[in-house]
Design goal:
Layout: H1 2-6, H2 8-28, H3 33-48, H4 58-63
């Protein structure tokens, strides 16, 4: 558990980088199936509070 608290920011950075790379790859492919899979993954991450798909900061999201 201490490893997670020590490396939490690093893990979130990696998750953000993976989602960003996946978003770029999905935009380049002609099919829509991968778009729906990525949208579901982003939705799950948003529910968990790991990823904010609307691009606003966490503080702004809490104010709404």
């Amino acid at each position: 558990m201490s490893w997670i608290t020590e490396h939490g920011k690093d893990m979130l950075a990696v998750i953000g980088a993976v989602v960003t790379a996946a978003s770029l790859i999905v935009k380049l492919t002609p099919t829509q199936k991968d778009d729906t899979v990525l949208a579901k993954i982003i939705k799950i991450l948003a529910v968990l509070g790991i990823f904010n798909p609307d691009g606003s900061s966490i503080g702004k999201a809490e104010e709404k």
